[in-house]
User: What shape does this take?
Amino acid sequence: MRCEVCGREIHGQPYYRVIEGGKLTVCGQCSKFSTQEWDPRAPQARKGQTRRRSAQPKPRRRSDIEAAESLELVDGYGMIIKKARQKKGLSVEDFAKQISEKESVVKKLEKENMNPPLNLVRKVQRELGINILEEAETATGTVLTRPMGPRTLGDLIKIKDNSEKEE
Assistant: This one.
């Protein structure tokens, strides 16, 4: 195990310290940067939520995740949004208020200058009565295991690590 501050190998028991708000696993030398400890085995509550003891967290259904990953925006979605908005007689400002977003977000959507999150796409579809999502085509073919092209710094680090293990 390595120290998350200096990167040295931790010999013996690691120290669990809160340093500048971050919970880190550190070596003995770096443990002096903080006296505040944390327990990695203790369950953590999310910010802004009170922890319920009896209720188990609701697991996300796999099908919801797969469904979201299998959808993509149709080509020309910006023009479809703009035409539907204009057909309803809404200005950019009015439509932005209607979906509780900033005008700049609506303008970026219409110009296709952003990759919108799924919840925003659903809001736009619901308010305008349009469909701008389609099933993504599944990619078939070979997957390259090694990147093509010149070596990167990451490649050199991997080579060095392998040579150290051989010694």
